Amino acid sequence: MAVYQTVANMLVSICIPTCDRPLLLWEAILSCFAQSHRPLEVLIGDDSANDDSKSLVETIVSPQGVTLRYRRNRPRLGQAGNVNSLFDAACGDWIILLHDDDTLLPGAVGLLLDRFNSDPEIVAAYGKQWLMSFDGAVLEQESESLNRFYFRDPGHAGTRLSALEAALVQQFPNDGYMVRSSAARALRYPEEGETDRVSWCDFAFGLRLAQHGPFHFLNAFTASTGSPQARSAHKAAPGLEHST
User: Fold this and answer.
1) What is the SS3 assignment for 95-138?
2) Contact 191, 84 (CB under 8 A)
3) Cα dihedral 55/67/174/233 (nearest 10)
4) Closest Cα partner for 83 from 26, 109, 29, 45?
5) Per-residue pLDDT tens for 162-202?
6) Could you read off the pLDDT of 53-73 as tens digits, one per residue?
7) Distance of alpha carbon 68 from the chain centroid
8) What is the spatial distance between Cα 124 and Cα 23, in angstroms, rounded to a whole number?
9) In sequence order, what DSSP letters do the residues of 69-100 get, joined into one string?
């Protein structure tokens, strides 16, 4: 019980790298504020070409127990550099990486944190993802297919896959996962020159992390992600018009 209380009260850092998607960033931040876990910090690394995301963040008032930290990257750091910069800046014992076009579901932080309490040996925990349409509807059939394709199903819950297997078959997702901050900072995303293709940096980080300890897959929905069509439409949306 004492261990649980210690883990439950630890600071969790949610790192959001963003680039030119203020509308989606707004939704991602709101999903962080909706979490019940405290204390919480939300860190934003902004690679945007304009001030839209900066202007949006400046209007936000954080709820009690949540610290919002924003940094504009000049020059741009790129995907991997932005993520690594956020890892370095995070003050929490635990880090969640959240892409700016995804959201956390209510209670996700507490559910993931509880996995570390149940199994102190794990280095990462993650759940399933809802696939969302442009108008915010859950695409249930597509979500089921997506999670099954990546072995996120009851038959592969817990630590049934080794960490290396989970990384290779991409059960370990590109984002929405919780990791020990010490491991994230030590292993880092591969930057330019370390991998042939920058688009593989999420996958490469999973492989690095797999050598550091076991993963735990929680058979519950903890995050949502937009369909490719929804992402494209949001990215093209002009200005800072948004709703709360």
Assistant:
1) EEECCCCEEECCCHHHHHHHHHHHCCCCCEEEEEEEEECCCCCE
2) yes
3) -30
4) 45
5) 999 999 999 999 999 999 999 999 999 998 665 555 568 99
6) 999 999 999 999 999 999 999
7) 16
8) 29
9) EEEE-SS--HHHHHHHHHHHH--SSEEEE--T
CA angle 139, 144, 145 (to 5 degrees): 100
Name residue 216's amino acid: H
Nearest Cα neighbor of 170 from 121, 193, 204 is 204
Partnered with residue 67 across adjacent β-strands are: 41
DSSP H or E run through 2: helix 2-8
- In Å, how far are 7, 34, 158, 171, 231 from 228, measured between CA atoms? 36, 25, 29, 19, 5
This prediction has a pTM of: 0.89
Tokens found for residue 70: 């924003």
Straight-line distance from the first to the last Cα atom of the chain, in angstroms, rounded to the nearest whole number: 38
Structure tokens at 21: 């998607």
Single-letter code of the amino acid located at 195: T
Rounded distance, CA 174 to CA 86, Å? 16
Which residues, other chains included, contact 25 with Cβ-Cβ below 8 Å and sequence gap of 6+?
Answer: 16, 18, 44, 53, 56, 57, 100
Name residues whose C-beta falls within 8 Å of residue 184's C-beta, 6 or more positions apart in sequence. Answer: 87, 90, 95, 209
Residue 153, token pair as written in the block: 């199903």
Sheet arrangement for strand 215-226: 66-72, 40-46, 12-18, 94-97, 178-180, 124-132, 215-226, 102-104
Task: State both tokens at 3.
Answer: 């261990």
